[in-house]
Batch of 3 targets.
Target 1
Amino acid sequence: MRAVKLIITLLSLASASASSTRCCFAMRDAANGRAIQQDSESGLVFVQSSMPDAGRYCLDEKSVLWDAGNNACIIDSAFRFQCLDPTPGFGRWRLRRGANGRTLLTVDGSARFKACPAGEADIAISGALKDDAPGCRALHLVASDLDGTCREYGS
């Protein structure tokens, strides 16, 4: 019984330490306030899909963005926003205060993303460099419910 209590205490301390060294938040589409969704198999990130809400994301001290499953997020070679495995990419993710006071997610200094049709009813998130295809629109991602090291941005 003492061993179980010790393990629970250690896990609680590790969890508290991780959130205090990371900036964690929920993400929403700035245009309509919709929560971001993520496909658990492909890791692709959407603003409109049948997938459940993605939950929380965290930035670490090396500007790596992590999803709730501890997968590193990247803009892949096809310019898709994807969080598939624990291997960080080369992009530098950060938060920045927008002109309207909202906290925006940026990658490599840009807060611009694109929302483009993907399949019959899904709308996937891509990096800003993706070619303009029919149905694509500009997208900003707002960080909310901030905790950990990003409390300076407010919520």
Target 2
Amino acid sequence: MKRTNTYIPNVTADTLMLQENDEDPLEDWEESVSEMFEWVGMAALGSQRLSAGDRCDPYISVYAPPDPSQVGDLTVIRWTGFITSEFLSQVVETILSPNVASPSFVSVTAHAVPTSPVTYIPDDPLKAHPSLRAPHVDAEDTISLVCMREEGAAGQAGCCWLLAESIGRWDKRRG
């Protein structure tokens, strides 16, 4: 789905990394990261609140895109089924490629099947073991990755990223 005239937040390395020079660094960082992930969720849902022409009644919604934002084009791709780690690696490699005009950032959000006993199948099962969980209808397993290209020393492209994960009480990793 391609949307035009959409507010897109200006995501920088400062947005993704905790800055120690602020007076309240952790609180400010948590607020900016929460706003960014809220925007990612709204974009994934196709929310009209992100449209530059949206004039919603404040009794219906008080949402405002993160500040600063610019108006641009947004592409949302939805996928149902398994996504391979190779596909996700190609997304990151595309962002890092100097031959491609990369977007300001890319986000991948995945919702796992709550009744599955594992969250993922590793490429090499002998090296990595997936976390087990009790298959349950109320289980929760969502990850959201925000990744951006960052120019390093000597023109080398690097990657700055942030991963948020939501797990439920049925997951072995909790607590």
Target 3
Amino acid sequence: MSSQKSQSDTYSHYYAAESIKNNQILQRCSATGLAIVRFEDESLQTYNTGGPYKIHKASNVYVGDIWIMAGQSNMRGHGYQIDPYTTCSLIEQGQPGIHLYDSKEEWTTAKEPLHQLYLSTRTVHHTLPDPTVKNPKLLKYRGASLGLSFAKHYRQENSNVPVGLVASAHGGTSLNDWKRPDALNDDTEDRTLYGAMMARIKAVGGPIGGILWYQGESDTNAAADASTYKDRFRLWVQTVRQDLNNPALPIAFVQIGPHAIDVEETKKNWQSVQLAQFDLMMEEGYTAGVASIDCSLDDRLHLSAAGLKIVGKRLAIAASKLLKASQKGVGLFKEPFCAQYQDPLIPDLEGRIPPCILFTTSQTWSTADLVENDDILGFGLRCEDKSVAIIHARAAEDATHIRIWISHKPKTELFLTYGLTYPLAGSSNKGWPAFCIKVKS
């Protein structure tokens, strides 16, 4: 805490001392690492990143970063909290410096389940269907989320900065359910997900570190929703940033992951949403995406506690990179995947055997767990020539590339896919998203 008080009005944001609650996280200024509190005598007090502080009548107050948890059930968390066959705990435990603005819209120390929607006073959480609202007893054994894993790894990435999580997700919701209402007022803050999220942001003080988003499964129910997901999500991101007056607001999202769906149309739509999210991952700016296709499930749609811990860590790394990019005012650069034909180097074989596909990742997508000459599963091909096939895919060049042998070179365009079939054998914890990219000559 700074030892000086000031009457200066040069600060862009301050917290009213009398409004601060027990266990609250105050959002630090990205440039200075400080939070400013205004007292009743109109003096201003600065507080450094960290804590705990006692401010006015509130205790256990920290200064750090606030992240909104938005989306549907995989963000709300629907993993088993305990193993149903052994009763062993599967969840992350809380720790000092990780706090939650909970479903009752009160600050508390964070512990699972992070979302308890049945306790919300907002109408929207009781009109949109969610199994934990209809039957809150589910939360006795389900409700494990990615939030605590995110917060712990985010602290590791950012000098142990305190983290405030704001519970705003709701199960089973589509992107249309998250659409901005025409006006933000008391009624829409009560009856819409977007309005409720904005009301919570206002209630926790205004500035936030960013938004965590995990949604898209419900948009696979109809081809029209799946095919327009990319443009609609871009608009949603733009709208949020406009409403918060922060064009560089970090937004870290999760590409929808594995499933055990047996409806062919839904499976096709699922791939459409995944590929839309992959395209969004590759765009420069203040939005970043992470994969979940290599994570385990607890049912046909919902990631397990173990899978959510992995995704939480990935989100923490992505969010940290976005935060640094936002502070610099320079959008995060995304190195794309690359797939190109490679002819054989033995002259006698040139033209007698087909070229292979040389696949290259980038620093964004690690190949650290690959071993040279290991077979790599999960790749596929898309082409008008349905007879072209993969012979094998193996790590090469000290495991920095993957060389994919194919049956023949088609006369039409060829696209290399990854992660679009399940189960994704041999891909554990690579962290690669599902994708479809053109093979270049």
